[in-house]
Amino acid sequence: MESEETVAIQHAVLALLARGPSYGYELKGAFEATTGPQWGALNIGHLYQILDRLSRDSLVVAERQAQQVKPDRVVYQITPDGRAELDRWLNEPSPRSGGFRDDFFLKVTAAARSGSAQTVRTVLSNQRGHLLRELRNLDGLRRKAADPVVGLLLAAASRHVEADLAFVDDAEAVLLADSGALLATLAVTPSQISASAADAAPPPRADDAGPARAAG
After folding, report:
1. How do residues 112-134 score in pLDDT, each as one tens digit?
2. How far apart are the first and last CA of the chain?
């Protein structure tokens, strides 16, 4: 199963090829230049896997071109099907990647369920420090960015970090506001959590009785 990141890179490659034919290392350089430092370097092996997949799906065609001194170069060109797929992607909204299945959300959950105010403070303090360093780094990169699109991407990344900082503040306000009284109520065992969830579930309907239930 393809990752969301791989699918996104596939479409970014199609967008680059829509501007003209290109080859692997040229595409790598163009991708990194257009997305800026926030995305990071593009692995050339991963890029060739993407190009092979695009070729198998008939979204690009590959042509081997001879060179005078260097080995033959494979040049890729977008197909009409590739342009149609690119248009489809550009015309659809982008859902949040990964939703809220985030390591920090799980860490806050674990800290809160521990019942320890000190554990919660440590988790939130460490995360706040990390986010503030990330925000300073992004601000520095944004001031140096000559490309306005790269500047916009870095500004968007900063907004995400600011939202994460706001969540840290919210968690602190909720979990630590009453000197640990709330945390004491959250420090329950898995069996207690499971039992509480079962109590909160709606009762089964009479017509839901299956074999196991009928057997008593």
Report:
1. 877 888 888 899 999 999 999 99
2. 42
